[in-house]
Amino acid sequence: MSSSNSTVTPGREEGRKTTPGPILLLGAPGVGKGTQAKELIKVWEIPQISTGDLLRGNVAQGTELGKTAKEIMGRGELVPDTLVNEMVAVRLQQPDTANGYILDGFPRTLVQANWLDERLAALGGALPLVAVSIKVDYNQLLRRITGRRNCPVCQSIYNLYGKPPAKEGFCDVDGAALAQRADDTEKVFEERMRAYEALTAPVVEHYRALGRFAEVDGGRPIPEIAAGIVAAVERLRS
């Protein structure tokens, strides 16, 4: 715990020198975007905005947007960009986004990226979006995903390569047999990687061309990755 604090504290101090503004975290499945979003929340005290959470929240609250989305999903169809954009637009009007926010899962296509850029430009005075990609070696990602095992009783998570249980196949806490999620297989991982690369490559090139893109090494300890993201945002905002 002490090493975490010592690593992130400089980033926390740096983060206060500038307004972070909207930040897009990019990265392949398993790179730890959610974990890093939580670290950045500590640094800048800005919210994380996940389109998945927005969609579930609108459906649960029975908003007009949520009712429309529920009807579409009930037909087995994908929620269109236009509806997701509307949900994001409503969320960005909340006062907690004034100094910035961390976007997770949006924009994931070039169409969404262009929409968001236009919307931020229309607000007048709003900082433009900066994108930071967390890069992890393919084989390392594969081991993270395919080596993952869950305890169905206490929900503890293990990894056969990085954090194995003391007794192979069984939870250290309650002795229950560990399980592998159906989608934690090499075949599913390869499909998700292909889909991610096809959708996200244009988004990366879009923000790279605008000079608003950076990459950080995601193979390091969590606090070091967070400090790297903070430093990248500082450079992009300078």
Structure characterization notes:
Helix 2 (about 35-45) crosses helix 9 (about 220-235) and helix 3 (about 50-60) packs across helix 5 (about 80-90). The protein is α/β, with parallel strands linked by helices and about 240 residues long. The chain is globular, with a radius of gyration of 19 Å. Mean pLDDT is about 90; it is low at about 1-15. It has helices at about 1-15, 35-45, 50-60, 65-75, 80-90, 110-125, 140-145, 185-210, 220-235, and strands at about 20-25, 50, 100-105, 130-135, 150, 155-160, 215. The chain has a 5-stranded parallel beta sheet, sandwiched between helices. The chain has a two-stranded antiparallel ribbon with strand order 5-6. The longest helix is centred in the C-terminal third of the chain and has 24 residues, at about 185-210. The protein has a single domain, classed as P-loop containing nucleotide triphosphate hydrolases (Rossmann fold, 3-Layer(aba) Sandwich).
